[in-house]
Amino acid sequence: MTDKVHFDRIAIIGAGLIGSSVARAVMRAGAAGTLVVSDRDEAVLSEAEKLGFAHEFTVNAREAAQDADLVVIAVPVGAMASVGVTIAPVLKAGAIVTDVGSVKEGVFKALEPLLPGNVHLIPGHPVAGTEQSGPSAGFASLFDGRWCIITPPQGVDEGALEKLTKLWEAMGSKVEIMTAQHHDLVLAITSHVPHLIAYNIVGTASDLEEVTRSEVIKYSAGGFRDFTRIAASDPTMWRDVFLNNKDAVLEMLGRFSEDLTALQRAIRWGDGDALFDLFTRTRDIRRRIIDAGQDEEAADFGRHHEE
Amino acid sequence: MTDKVHFDRIAIIGAGLIGSSVARAVMRAGAAGTLVVSDRDEAVLSEAEKLGFAHEFTVNAREAAQDADLVVIAVPVGAMASVGVTIAPVLKAGAIVTDVGSVKEGVFKALEPLLPGNVHLIPGHPVAGTEQSGPSAGFASLFDGRWCIITPPQGVDEGALEKLTKLWEAMGSKVEIMTAQHHDLVLAITSHVPHLIAYNIVGTASDLEEVTRSEVIKYSAGGFRDFTRIAASDPTMWRDVFLNNKDAVLEMLGRFSEDLTALQRAIRWGDGDALFDLFTRTRDIRRRIIDAGQDEEAADFGRHHEE
Ligand SMILES: NC(=O)c1ccc[n+]([C@@H]2O[C@H](COP(=O)([O-])OP(=O)(O)OC[C@H]3O[C@@H](n4cnc5c(N)ncnc54)[C@H](OP(=O)(O)O)[C@@H]3O)[C@@H](O)[C@H]2O)c1
Ligand SMILES: NC(=O)c1ccc[n+]([C@@H]2O[C@H](COP(=O)([O-])OP(=O)(O)OC[C@H]3O[C@@H](n4cnc5c(N)ncnc54)[C@H](OP(=O)(O)O)[C@@H]3O)[C@@H](O)[C@H]2O)c1
After folding, report:
1. B145: left (phi over 0), alpha (psi -120 to 50) or beta
2. B131 — pLDDT class (breaks 50, 70, 90)
3. Which of A13, A31, A257, B54 has the fewest CB within 10 Å, making it most exposed?
4. Where are the alpha helices (DSSP H) in B133-190?
5. Please, where are the H alpha helices in chain A?
6. How far apart are CA B38 and CA B59, in angstroms?
7. Domains B7-178 and B182-302 share a fold
8. What's the rounded Cα separation, in Å, for the pair A140 and A53?
């Protein structure tokens, strides 16, 4: 076991965008003695095998988890429990079980009762992704410079938490620790509600009678197209997010709707100052996101333009 | 006058993102015998002069419009009338006056009574842009492959309309003709409401107490950052858009809010099928926008990722 190796055997369950990116980042870091990737779908697994981002591949999640020092569950939030049931009987004493799900309290509550008492369940969520899915959509640098939020339960084993933290750092992430509840509130506003309103406006635009779909498509460069990218994200993943983070999403959605009502009133009454004031305040946040290295300066998302 | 020259003298009033891009595209096409650009701000004008995207530069809009065969007004929608007042006295008989404003009915109503009866007022709107402003943000290829909507009044001079259409085509655009009213409805859903909800969510996120601003910034890669780009667009331009396209924006915003209420209810009642159904329908529009050449396939807006 060299210096770089963090775990003798790491198992990743689910070879999608995130699972395959974790696999590539683990390999890039040389962080596993043996890395095994499992996917329930034969076709996806053989695609993964061709891409070659692990040492071993198996359709059998139980076989993958056997003897693993770390198991990373990378499936939709609503499928975590069924994976938990499958792997629980073979988990090694002292193994760490983590996940990458976009909701944290629900995942912990689903997995915790299923796993033996002698493993360390420490949920996590890398705040990085794209709108695409599957093993070929992943890449090793997905987590570089992005935050990974780890939400350890009360009384967590500090050694296990440190090992997991160090692994995410080796994969390029910055790590933050918080409670699952707080994670779910933060992500409701920075990710879940933004996705919801993107899905919603694309739905609204598709259903109009006065404006045809082909007009919506032709003139989408005026702003709409940027919402369609987000609204092209995986339906299963996002259904599970909303079903499992209901309270925080409804809370943040309520705030959003209140603010939108005020803005609607400002438009109705021709209150240009109120509009100008909001539109000025919102610029500052953009600047701070760029300064924090969480986005690029390039106009129009760096879409290709030639001079 | 060579074959490529469409107008002997073109004047552009306003050297911002769009005005300077029109200038560059006119020069690239060799479409003007003489191109003169005017900006009221000395500093902006001398920046424009350094960038060199026209034959002549002047702070005096009236001087620019004098003897022009085509005047392109490229200022915020609320400032069109004051430019109209300035240039009206010197407009040549038979000249074409157009604009690039994001709202069309209001602009026509503001300009039409101000201009002499012997000029052709034919408003237009290139559906292309970025979130940036000013002369250095412009580029010649901004309109390539994008649509320009021209909204001629009833009884328009067909020859003048054709000359303007050909010019936009020479600048790389595809041209569509429609009424000003229909334009304003189409743009309300494809551009104005998307901007409004982006501004709104960024405002909501800035005002929370349970989630700090620095958390919003750190975890913005989960979706939020894409809204901040749009919400960094010019406040004056967007205030004017909402003040001048009130009815269509309120109408489309009403539809958006109704649909959002239905989605909220689906989350509250745990109706996963309704969510999954919407999230699946919205993917199709994305595909069609890419097929129509109005966006790129690259994941994550082609943000830089290394393998
Ligand atoms: N996409 C993002 O931007 C992003 C970002 C951060 C975190 N996440 C989280 O990462 C997790 C995975 O998302 P992803 O983007 O990687 O999705 P993905 O590309 O669609 O991959 C999903 C993976 O889960 C497997 N799976 C689905 N249902 C399953 C079930 N019932 N039992 C066993 N395996 C199942 C899939 O297997 P098949 O091969 O059979 O389809 C596939 O391997 C989710 O929890 C999501 O919330 C996503
Ligand atoms: N941005 C987009 O994505 C986009 C897309 C399509 C159409 N449009 C439309 O294009 C027009 C120009 O927008 P832009 O993006 O080019 O904005 P911009 O970069 O901010 O430039 C605005 C220009 O208008 C001038 N201006 C502002 N107020 C004026 C006034 N009261 N009198 C005379 N000149 C004035 C500015 O002069 P200074 O140099 O003194 O500031 C500047 O030259 C707007 O009508 C907008 O709706 C914009």
Report:
1. left
2. very high
3. A257
4. 158-170, 180-187
5. 17-29, 42-51, 61-65, 80-87, 105-111, 158-170, 180-187, 193-206, 213-218, 224-230, 235-244, 246-268, 272-291
6. 5
7. no
8. 9
Q: How remote is the CA of residue A237 from the centroid of ligand 1, in Å?
A: 7
- Check: CB of residue B175 under 8 Å from CB of residue B169: yes
CA–centroid distance, B123 to ligand 1, in Å, is: 49
Residue to substitute in A22, A40, A46 for testing ligand 1 pocket (most ligand atoms within 8 angstroms of CB): A40
Q: Give the separation between CA B121 and CA B164, rounded to whole angstroms.
A: 11
Tokens of B247: 């009815």
- Interchain proximity A235–B283, CB inside 8 Å: yes
CATH class name, domain A182-302: mainly alpha
Q: What is the ipTM of this complex?
A: 0.95
Tens digits of residue pLDDT in B157-177: 999 999 999 999 999 999 999
Report the top-level CATH class of A7-178. alpha beta
| Distance in Å, alpha carbon of B52 to nearest chain A alpha carbon | 14
Q: Is the CB of A99 under 6 A from ligand 1?
A: no
**CA angle in degrees (0–180, nearest 5) for A7-A9-A14:** 110
Distance CA A184, CA B253 (A): 28
- Nearest of B302, B266, B127, B200 to residue A203 by alpha carbon: B266
Measured over the CA atoms of residue B73, residue B79, residue B81 and residue B84, the dihedral's sign is negative
pLDDT tens for each residue of A87-139:
999 999 999 999 999 999 999 999 999 999 999 999 999 999 999 999 999 99
Phi, psi of B33 (to 5 degrees): -60, -55
* Mean pLDDT of all residues in B69-91: 98
* Domain edges within chain B: 7-178, 182-302
Chain centroid offset of residue A278 CA: 30
Ligand 2 binding site (Cβ under 6 Å of any ligand atom): B 14-19, 39-41, 44, 74-77, 79, 82-83, 100-102, 125-126, 129-130, 133-134, 234, 237
